[in-house]
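Notebook, bench 3.
Goal today: get a predicted structure for Transporter from Geosporobacter ferrireducens so we can plan the truncation constructs. The sequence was checked against the plasmid map this morning, with no discrepancies at the termini. Length recorded as 345 residues. Pasting the sequence as submitted so the record is complete.
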Amino acid sequence: MSLIINKVTKKFGNIIALNNVSIEIKDGEFIAILGPSGCGKTTLLRIIGGFAEPTSGTIKMGDVLYSDSAFNLPVEKRNLSMVFQSFALWPHMSVREHIEFPLKSKRNKAMGDEEKKNAVEEAISWTGLKKLADRLPGELSGGQKQRVALARAVVSKPDILLMDEPLSSLDAELKVNMRKEIQDLHKLTGATIIYVTHDQSEALAMANRIIIMKNGNIEQIGTPEEVYKKPKTEFVAVFVGKCNLVRGRWNQNIFYVKDTKIMYNNESVEPYFIQRGMYPVRPEQFSIERKGLGIEGRITNKQYNGREIHYTVKCEDDFYVVYEDEEKNFNINEAIVLVKKERGN
């Protein structure tokens, strides 16, 4: 069954947290809701979960009404689970007791004891917690605590799994490991996952589709590749992947860089940018050269990242971000030119 969000608006006094939001989320999809703090992504997640009510609009799961302006189906009657930003573990309960806890609710009263036991063992197995089943939260690492929270969320086999920035409290290496575990869990359970994050790398790495939000509005919905390679607005271009917006003018399918003789061919640039005299260029699509026909600039910042170096280049009044191979080493304050790579290079 699809989750259908139709023209949902949420107001807090005079503040519009969500503005006429409409989305259809298909059964089994992994959806990431991406955006900066205050964009409305957590408010949308809370309304889907039943923790808040929309000011107007409707949310349906198939033919079942979840919410509208006059009705809100209680949380316990929605077949969903939520993984919070904090692990939300009780210090006196073991790993197994945490995972068993959701099955004691009225929603799962129809399950027999043997079925519940099998569900707990399955959730423990899915999340690799067999050897830790009798430990208390104080004896677990951050990653292990997050796996407990995941196992507790999936043990009742919900149709929808809501995740509110679940990896934000983990260190960088653990985040990468947990991404894979969440992807594996999605494949094993087949649940629809709605994952809120402000981290673009998480969204790009895990989701089937990404919803990008700004100021309560949806800026773009698409696959990770579509959102990265074909941003539809300036906000999406800059927020996802630090796209450089080169200024100039368009003539038919040719872009002329401002105050130069440099021309770029139209490589599926969206009308939004054409109408505004811009050409989006990703950091890896620029090549830094010491001479040649390119946008003249000067290196102002340099950050070593292992296989590549991230440069900031000042070109008159604009600053561009460029990723180059570590073999091509440039110095701060060095005069260079930026050459756009042709597609496929």
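Residues 172-189 form the longest helix (18 residues). The mean pLDDT is 92.
Flagging this for group meeting.
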